[in-house]
Amino acid sequence: MRWTPATRLSVNLPHVPRITGTRLLLIEDNPGDAELVSRALARATQRCEVEMHIRLRDALARDDLTEFDVALADLSLPDACGLQCVRQLRERAPQLPCIVLTSLASDAMADEAIEAGAQDYLVKDRINPEQLERAMRYAMQRNRARMENERLLKALRNSQKLLQEKNQRLQRACSTAQQFVDNVSHEFRTPLTVILEYASLLRDGIPGVINDDQRRLLDVIDDRTCDLNNMVDDMLDVSKLESGLLGIWRRTCQVDEIVRHVLPLLQRKAEVRRVVLETDIPDDLPAIFCDPEKIGRILVNLVVNAVKFCGDPGLVRLTARRCGDDVRLSVSDNGAGIPLDRREEIFQRFSQLHNAQSQSTKGFGLGLSIAQELAELNYTSLHVDAGGSGGSVFSFAPPIADPLNVAKRHLAHLADFRNAPSGVVAYHAEVVGDLEATNPNDVEGLFCYVLRQHDLALPAEDGSWLLLAAVNDLESERFVERFHEEQAQINRNRPRGPLPEIALRPLGSWDVTDRLEETIECVRTHFDRLELCHA
Predict the structure, then answer these.
(1) I want to staple 24 with a disulfide (CB 3.0 to 4.6 A). Which of 50, 201, 423, 473 is the partner?
(2) Residue 447 class from Cβ within 10 Å (0-12 exposed, 13-18 middle, 19+ buried)?
(3) The CATH number of the domain where 460 resides is what?
């Protein structure tokens, strides 16, 4: 056969469906090498259409270059030397898989060819039909996989760009909504504060003496104004709960102190509505581990709700009892009760029960929903049951302040809670330097500022702490960096001088959805070791 600058021939390949009807572009200036390739293809017995050029520029000038399935290119052409041929083919037709033909068997050259974009590297005097067929088939398969990966990567980048744009819009919308809530809350609070102050002046008789009927009316004004103030608090709490910005400071607390703090407000509300409020809080209750402000808020919401729905004459009871590893707090009333089919619904946002007793004091329907979410942040949940003599009993049970008990509840919370991360990294935290000169409350205040909703700091008897950070392995290093950055920021602005350095030593990391028991065992071992060291 006499080879011309552009020659077309047909040869047979073996019966391999994946390369049936293959169009092959051969760029080879040596007739002997071209004949060698042609004979290898001919012995393969399956039809394949081959077109040949002896110069690279002629091949690159073809209008149908991208329609070929694979290209075989010599590295020594009259107008291209070395890997220049591969690079120009890739530039002209990036989707065309290229197999390099060379007379030299060099691993280094083969690596360079692959790096330049070739799919394979064949030595001419070692070519056989099986090897050539396999190289062509794999080159086309790899090229299709590469093109599909590039398509998917492009689609992924486009999706990522769209997602970033949507996230930016959502962040702007969230910021606008947050700003709106803050502004509305501020605009509400200003006149409410004025109303409360002037009502207080009138009730105290500053402008002049008032009679009992006038005092009762002023108490009603004060009570309704407080209701509006609570509605503002509800709006703010919902906004913070949704954004994960609601701060929480869980620590060892006494139940009677929490009740004593909110009792004056509850008694005033009960008196205005002529409801009897009874409390039964034993003195020997164990300490609980919770955020006292959040537990107090739950009690206020439950008692206020009970006062609204109690009977006539009204009776509301607030009780506390130890129940295993918990202390159960209950609020009961003597009202009409809640139908069984509505006991789950009432904890949903904007859900309200309608009856004659509550129509004059309707709110947003957020009180019980917020109370439920605050309870969940304190490792418990609200339950409602029928009272023994009518009415309803709302109860929740924060854990006793035992480190292992609290850790179990915390980890179970992470495993079950719908918005909580599943990863946990445990750290041993201790003060560097003079421990006696350090106020533990200052350190726990630091933890309150730095740690997030789903993190936990458990104090140990030796003045150290066990931190359970809701992060995964990849975020662990950044957690420590953020901890020290935020401590440094606090120290710069702290009037009483800087807080001591806190050293964080990692103890392990787990996925609580799969390794809950293993995580709990680490906590148990940690506290057992501390007890042995300080026995």
Answers:
(1) 50
(2) buried
(3) 3.30.70
User: Which structural domain range is residue 449 located in?
Assistant: 403-533
Distance CA 206, CA 305 (A): 33
| Same domain, yes or no: 419 and 391 | no
Distance CA 457, CA 236 (A): 26
**Residue 420 confidence (pLDDT):** 63
Question: Is residue 216 exposed (0-12), middle (13-18) or buried (19+ Cβ within 10 Å)?
Answer: middle
**Residues 265 and 387 occupy one common structural domain:** yes
For residue 178, pLDDT beyond 90: no
Please list, in sequence order, all residues whose beta carbon lies within 8 angstroms of the beta carbon of residue 257, skipping any fewer than 6 positions away.
Answer: 292
- Going by C-alpha positions, the residue among 296, 321, 318, 297 that lies closest to residue 307 is 318
Q: What is the share, in percent, of the chain residues with pLDDT greater than 70?
A: 85
Q: Residue 398 in contact with residue 469, Cβ under 8 Å?
A: no
**pLDDT(135) > 80:** yes
258 in a domain, yes or no?
A: yes
Mean pLDDT, rounded, for 310-332: 93
* DSSP E strands, 282-341: 288-290, 314-323, 326-333
> Please, are residues 56 and 86 in contact by the beta-carbon 8 Å criterion?
no
- Evaluate the CA torsion angle 279, 284, 285, 291 in order and state its sign: positive
Residue 454 has pLDDT above 90, yes or no: no
